[in-house]
Input
Amino acid sequence: MDMKTRIPARSGKTASRVIDGEAVIVLLDKQETIVLSDVGSRIWEIMDGKKDIGEISGAIISEFDATHEEALKDITEFVEDMVQRGAVEVK
Output
């Protein structure tokens, strides 16, 4: 499957809040907390289970100084890391 067409969504096993541009995520079943960077926080906000990685990449490119390739790579790595941690599910 083309990575750009994968649709990430926040897991129902998380609670989160964005405070001053930083997302704080609590993994409820692991009692673990994750604090994201400004870019990671923005990706977290955009992930709604409806937008694919390509659409998220477009938003990140327009808001941050990144090329299409950099944004796609960084978002893919972010999503894969969050999937492994149990914070994100991918359709």
Notes: The chain is about 40% helix and 25% strand. The chain has one domain: 3-90. The radius of gyration is 12 Å.
